[in-house]
Design goal:
The protein has about 575 residues and is mainly β. Strands 24-25-26-27-28-29-30-31 form an 8-stranded antiparallel beta barrel. It is globular, with a radius of gyration of 23 Å. The two termini are about 35 Å apart.
Length: about 575
């Protein structure tokens, strides 16, 4: 559920899920006869289409999102790491896809505060976070080089049960002694003047200590259990993630001192992960063997789990997003790939190889950026009050160069929002297109075939755990794919079968590998050699394949209608 949107729902254990996503599985009696009708029904645009004009989404790193209410209407606020502004950046949106800057959060900081201003504030002893500064300067790694607040999280105070935009809000963020150090501090601030602050210091939640088991005290993320208990997950690299129980009445630690580490929740080879975000979901799981048997609508059951998303790999070179699950909020989180997590996103483009590129391989035209999703990661998860599951994350849109070598390191970060859903095995999948207000609903086989005669663009990827810290991820390019009426499919040199079942689930077998996915609406960007770049409302597919002895890495398959 929305860990930050409607707190009273979390505290009372009412885990609402989209009525469309949890409609009676297998009931296709209301399915429209034509794809146009289906697509029109699934789109619910608030004000046309997305635009990237202005600076609303640029320079965004480690974003989180909250839903606030003002006069009964929803407003969304994204908070992110200090980048070109200090004191935790804030952005505002009315629809999750058009954003504008809304200042900075911490008391005493302004949008005009520069790096030297920050240093002077602390050195003069009058900064809002002076107690945090005092702790950091006592750490051996402190060298006065890192003045950046990282990876915030924000929730409405317990007393602000309706998430009133003008009510009390709590902010959690972190400060590290220097980039790459594990000597860090997570702290809490509060605002009694509304969601945009100013936020004033309240206390330290956890800090580096000799017995912290190498849990790195950065990237805080707050979530609630159905019984109303409040938790904070945190951590990055070193020893993976930890969880600390908080007091819902205060938002501070329920027990323990700042030097007491949280419970470790990711083990094995899961230490190369950062930026945890945890949501509790009840989803429909198909217990039949759809790969080898006829569909049986009676074989569905509910499954409730904590889903944890995080990022994996090197931020500037091979970042990607992954998912783990647990039956308990502070239990061990695992996946079909163990501690590595099930990869659900990576580096790809909806361009074919060489398509739409100018000046070799390094410079792309501005209109091309919507088609590129390079090293996306450090996401947040939200379920809105009208039932949309969305992730908010940063991604780069172009290759850059570092030290004369192609990389993504110098590319700009942009704020992206995409829907997420669950396949029939209960695995989380991400819509591979940016969100513009659509909703998941019932689709059928005819919908997938009639709009574009079964023609799709396909992106096929595999997870990779063994890339070095500075090894650039390979860009997965689009290929032509054909879904045929007879249930066969071709994708490049690969072939197989496909079937749609339930209300919006899909099974695809390619060269003997089985992918389970969800069919979702999407605003699709496409390049055409004659027409240039164009946009159409259509259907997209996101599916994943589990690892096997033959394929030790999990597979990722995206399909967009090809207009």
């Amino acid at each position: 559920m929305n860990k930050k949107g409607i707190t009273c729902m979390a505290l009372t254990g009412i885990m609402a899920f989209s009525a469309a996503a949890l409609s009676a599985c297998g009931n296709e009696s209301s399915a429209p006869k034509y794809a146009d009708e289906t697509i029109d029904r699934l789109f619910k645009l608030n004000s046309g289409s997305r635009t990237d004009e202005g600076n609303g989404i640029n320079s965004t790193h480690d974003p989180v999102v909250v839903e606030a209410k003002r006069n009964g209407k929803s407003e969304f606020y994204a908070f992110s790491t200090d980048n070109d502004q200090y004191g935790v950046q804030i952005r505002k949106s009315l629809n999750l896809y058009r954003w504008e800057r809304a200042g900075v959060a911490i008391n005493g900081f302004t949008a005009a505060t520069k790096a030297q201003d920050v240093q002077n504030m602390y050195k003069n002893g009058n900064a809002e976070l002076q107690p945090v500064y005092q702790v950091l300067t006592g750490m051996s790694d402190w060298n006065n080089s890192c003045w950046t607040l990282w990876a915030p999280d924000v929730v409405p105070a317990t007393s602000n049960k309706n998430a009133d935009a003008d009510g009390e809000w709590w902010l959690y963020s972190c400060w590290t002694s220097k980039f790459g150090s594990e000597q860090s501090v997570i702290f809490k601030c509060k605002s009694t003047e509304g969601v945009t602050g100013p936020y004033k210091y309240e206390g330290i939640i956890v800090q580096d200590s000799a017995d912290d088991r190498n849990l790195n005290e950065i990237d805080p993320s707050v979530f609630y259990a159905p019984d109303g208990k409040m938790y904070l997950s945190y951590g990055s690299y070193y020893s993976g993630f930890g969880v600390i129980e908080l007091d819902p009445a205060t938002g501070l630690r329920k027990e323990g001192t700042p030097s007491t580490p949280g419970k470790q929740i990711l083990t094995g080879n899961g230490f190369n992960a950062e930026g945890s975000a945890i949501n509790y979901h009840t989803v429909d799981v198909y217990t039949g063997d759809i790969a080898n048997e006829e569909y049986d609508a009676s074989k569905w059951q509910k499954q409730s789990k904590y889903y944890m998303m995080g990022s994996w790999g090197a931020l500037a070179y091979n970042y990607n997003m992954r998912v783990w699950t647990s039956d308990t909020p502070d239990g061990t989180y695992t996946s079909e790939r163990g501690g590595s997590g099930l990869q659900v996103s990576g580096t790809w483009t909806w361009r074919k190889d060489g398509e739409g590129v100018k000046d070799g391989t390094t410079n792309y035209p501005n209109k091309d950026k919507d088609m590129n999703f390079y090293i996306p990661g450090h996401n947040d998860m939200i379920t809105t009050s009208d039932g949309v599951n969305a992730i908010i994350y940063h991604a780069r849109v172009a290759e850059a160069r570092k030290d004369g070598n192609p990389s993504f390191a110098e590319g700009e970060h942009y704020l992206y929002t995409s829907m997420y859903d669950f396949n029939s095995k209960g695995q989380l999948v991400i819509n591979p297109n940016r969100y513009v207000g659509e909703k998941i609903g019932t689709v059928n086989k005819k919908d997938l075939l009639s709009k574009t005669n079964g023609n799709y663009s396909a992106v096929l990827m595999e997870s990779h755990d063994n890339l070095s810290y500075t090894e650039k991820a390979e860009i997965a390019h689009a290929q032509d794919c054909k879904l045929n009426e007879d249930g066969t499919v071709t994708l490049g040199e690969k072939s197989g079968t496909w079937k749609v079942y339930g209300d919006h689930y899909i099974f695809i077998r390619l060269d003997g590998r089985d992918y389970y996915g969800s069919v979702m609406p999407a605003q699709i960007r496409q390049y055409d050699a004659t027409l240039g770049y164009k946009t159409n409302n259509g259907l997209t597919i996101s599916a994943i394949a589990a690892p096997s002895e033959k394929n030790p890495e999990n597979g990722i398959l995206y399909l967009n209608m090809q207009f």
